Amino acid sequence: ELMKERFSKLLLGEDMSGGGKGVSSALALSNAITNLAASIFGELKKLEPMGAETKVRWRKEIDWYLSVSDHIVQFVPSKHGSNMEIMVTKQRTDLQMNIPALKKLDAMLLDCLDNFKGQNEFHYVSRDENDESATNRNGVEKWWIPVPQVPADGLSEGTRKWIQSQKDSVSQVLKAAMAINAQVLAEMEVPETYIDSLPKNGRASLGETVYRSITDEHFDPEHFLSSVDLSSEHKIVDLKNRLEASVVIWKRKMNSKDAKSSAWGSGVSLEKRELFEERAQTILFILKHKFPGIAQSDLDITKIQCNRDVGHAILESYSRIIESLAFSVSSRIDDVMHADTMARNPSAGRRRRDKLLLEREKETANSKATLLDFIGWNLQGGGEDELLNAKATNKKPTHIERLENLGGGMRSP
After folding, report:
1. DSSP type of residue 395
2. Looking at residue 12, what DSSP letter applies?
3. Which residues of 249-260 are buried (b: 16+ CB within 10 A; e: fewer)?
4. Interval 205-226: pLDDT, tens
């Protein structure tokens, strides 16, 4: 009965009223797999085995959704007798290769959590701002995630090596899931709705400062990333959005078969566009691996929402939730390793806490600026004239220009 309910919802595109306003089958299946993982795993808080009933439910329901891929087939020639060849059906190649691989990665993650059963060298306590030992390793306030506590002199050498081996194993799972997810997203077509929202050239998408850096004769991706502001997830995602938009623009201009290419101008040679696109792709690759837990870009979200290929939807959503779970497990292992480092080197922990407190004080001071201070209008001493002049200006800045103007000299992405 539960399976009937799940699949009837998929067939109706999540519109249980039957009014025909549901989403595509591919998106409905993608949402179903994503929602199932969210209800099972949520945000992983501790390194501990999954409950037996929860594990059974996960195995049963994810297999329901993955079973759809068994019926996505292609025709292939097959020998019939000595001199006859007929066409037979076989599961589509990408599904045949990647579904078993993802199932194995899934099992490896659950086995890793099972390995922490019975360990007695660290435990968890609720986060308390007044407790110095509860300082988050990266300064991010997540009060709902408990803090690991280790012995006063740190973990034993054997436990430390064992935890590092678990970390290495999870890192391999994360890399494999990321690779499959990136491959599937790359195979999805860029939706027309996304293309229609783009500016006409890469310079307008990137902004003047970022564009100059990427098109400079002496380009170094690491130096570029050190020169831009990547202090928050919002800024990282915004940079990804700009880079991906520019890549799409340059690819369209390089594609001579594109019927709309004449409307996109031709101010830069094809060779240079190819070079710029390669540089942008390099930065995107580094960002993906440097910040694996970052939110999806606008292009990825639009591809998922507009995708009509059910096979791609299954592979993308399944690899994405495995990637997310692997990142969560890796983060919880990092929490334990950080607690161990702080226990063995208390002075370094105190210096780090002082640095985090100083950074928070600066952020608090900056947040006290008024909206008028942020915009740059001063209503005292001639500010009223500036306000009137601003109202009288006919030119409306674009969204990209507003983003650029917010950053000052070195514009933040």
Report:
1. P
2. T
3. bbebbeeeeeee
4. 898 899 999 988 888 999 999 9
Q: Which long-range contacts (CB under 8 A, 24 or more apart) does 264-271 make?
A: 264/200, 264/201, 265/200, 265/201, 267/201
pTM score, two decimals?
0.79
Q: Which two tokens stand for residue 203?
A: 């310079």
Contact present, 304 and 34 (Cβ < 8 Å): no
Residue at token pair 């990804």: 240
Among 191, 399, 403, 205, residue whose Cα is nearest residue 299: 191
Rg (the chain; Cα; Å): 26
Local confidence band at 255 (pLDDT 50, 70, 90 cut-offs): confident
Cα three-residue angle 375-378-380, rounded to 5 degrees: 165
Backbone angles phi, psi at 148, to 5 degrees: -75, 140
Contact 274, 254 (CB under 8 A): yes
Whole-number Å distance between alpha carbons of 375 and 92: 55
Q: Collapse the DSSP code of 28 into the 3-class scheme (helix H, G, I; strand E, B; otherwise coil) and give the result.
A: helix
Residues 6+ apart with CB under 8 A from 189: 303
**Close Cβ partners of 411 (under 8 Å, ≥ 6 residues apart):** 207, 208, 209, 210, 403, 404, 405
Integer Cα distance of 287 and 359 in angstroms: 24
Q: Are the C-beta atoms of residues 95 and 311 closer than 8 Å to each other?
A: yes
Q: At what angle do helices 52-67 and 25-41 cross, to 10 degrees?
A: 170
Q: Which residues on adjacent β-strands are paired with residue 149?
A: 123
**pLDDT interval class at 107 (50, 70, 90):** very high
In the chain the first and final C-alpha atoms are separated, in Å, by 50
| Collapsed DSSP state (helix, strand, coil) of residue 49 | coil
Q: Taken in order 61, 65, 66, 68, is the CA torsion positive or negative?
A: positive
